[in-house]
Specification:
Elements: H1 4-11, H2 15-22, H3 30-43, H4 49-56, E1 61-66, H5 72-87, E2 91-96, H6 101-112, E3 118-121, H7 130-135, E4 141-144, E5 155-158, H8 160-173, E6 179-183, H9 189-204, E7 214-216, H10 221-232, E8 240-243, H11 246-258, E9 268-273, E10 286-289, H12 292-307, E11 315-318, E12 321-323, H13 333-336
Parallel strand pairs: 1-2, 1-3, 3-4, 4-5, 5-11, 6-7, 6-8, 8-9, 9-10
Antiparallel strand pairs: 10-12
Helix pairs in contact: 1-2, 1-3, 5-12, 8-9, 10-11
Length: 337
């Protein structure tokens, strides 16, 4: 294998100059940079990563903590983080926690042990204070998608309330008055904000938000099944359901079919996320599109800024949009009686 000295000899410079060039610690004339790059390519030189990390004091790696990499939403988010990190010379270590507190805390401790240069944290549970205590005072951390109370680090979220506001307004404009909402865990930031957006749209239309028609549990297909079963088994079911994730919406679709009903003829449905499968299900799902790739990319940019001693915005909210497909129609005459 070619060595640093081999590259230096080929390029006609000192080994120290090559080392400093590779570590971005020297400003060389373009002609010199070109000779070093050409020598590296010709000799197929591979830097000694361990030596480089010892020299720079950096691992050149980030940690991404995600609740469930099998979930298409978090998989897309992780892919965006990896792309942006790799483009800037960083590897990404991904921990899929399954929503378990111990796994989340272990990932944070690994950062404290200098195994990574920074951490992008996503969670799907309400913190009991444990995560906040571990993150308190730590640098080079960015929160993504969900908040953790008591932590002062840059955050990247979407406009959750605007999303459900647009969804509810769309259902109301289509003639629906009896609208239910199925959401994630009670007290989670996104859940509270999406409920607030829904409530705002209903209030503006002079429509009641029935307590029995707001069901909060998990952002999962299984919870969509359980909640939709409760709603459709009622004597007076809603004519429309706003599912606060596309995964929940898939569960709702299953229950609607099991009850011998159809979407949107018997009940209308709106999701939240716009995962790739949303356009492929039958009927194609009307949903709120989150800019998932932009979220992941911005989180990495914020982390890089922190590493460079800069101060990113304390909180960034990315816009969402309503994507209309075929899962919403005016309520049937039978439902209006």
């Amino acid at each position: 294998m070619a060595t640093l000295s081999d590259v230096a000899a080929e390029a006609g410079v000192s080994p120290t100059a090559v080392s400093r060039y590779l570590n971005n610690r020297i400003d060389l004339p373009q002609a010199t940079r070109d000779r070093i790059d050409a020598a590296i390519a010709k000799l197929d030189y591979r830097p000694n990563l361990l030596a480089r990390r010892l020299s720079t004091g950096k691992s050149e790696a980030f940690a991404l903590v995600t609740p469930d990499i099998a979930n298409p939403f978090f998989a897309e988010l992780a892919a965006a983080v990896e792309r942006q990190a790799h483009a800037n010379g960083y590897s990404v270590y991904i921990t899929s926690t399954g929503g378990h507190a111990d796994a989340e805390m272990n990932a944070i401790r690994r950062m404290a042990d200098s195994h990574v240069d920074g951490l992008i944290m996503t969670t799907n549970r309400v913190d009991d204070g444990s995560l906040a205590n571990l993150l308190a005072g730590r640098e080079n951390v960015v929160l993504l998608d969900e908040d953790i109370d008591g932590v002062s680090v840059p955050r990247v979220f979407v406009d959750n309330a605007e999303g459900t506001y647009l969804a509810a307004k769309h259902l109301i404009a289509m003639g629906h008055r009896d609208i239910a909402l199925i959401g994630g865990p009670h007290r989670l930031m996104s859940v509270n904000e999406r409920l607030a957006g829904f409530t705002r749209a209903m209030d503006e239309a002079g429509l009641p938000v029935r307590p029995g028609w707001v069901l909060l549990g998990d952002y999962t297909r299984d919870y969509g099944v359980a909640a939709a079963s409760v709603l459709l088994d009622a004597v007076d079911p809603p004519t429309a359901i706003l599912a606060c994730s596309d995964y929940i919406a898939i569960g709702v679709m299953q229950v609607v079919r099991e009850h011998g009903l159809s979407i949107p003829n018997d009940i209308s449905l709106v999701g939240f996320d716009d995962m790739a499968f949303a356009a492929l299900v039958d009927p194609p799902l009307t949903t709120i599109r989150q800019p998932v790739a932009a979220m992941g990319e911005l989180a990495v940019k914020h982390l890089l800024a922190l590493l460079e001693g800069q101060t990113p915005a304390a909180e960034t909210r990315l816009p969402v949009e309503l994507v209309t497909r075929q899962s919403v129609a005016p309520p049937s005459r039978k439902a209006l009686k």
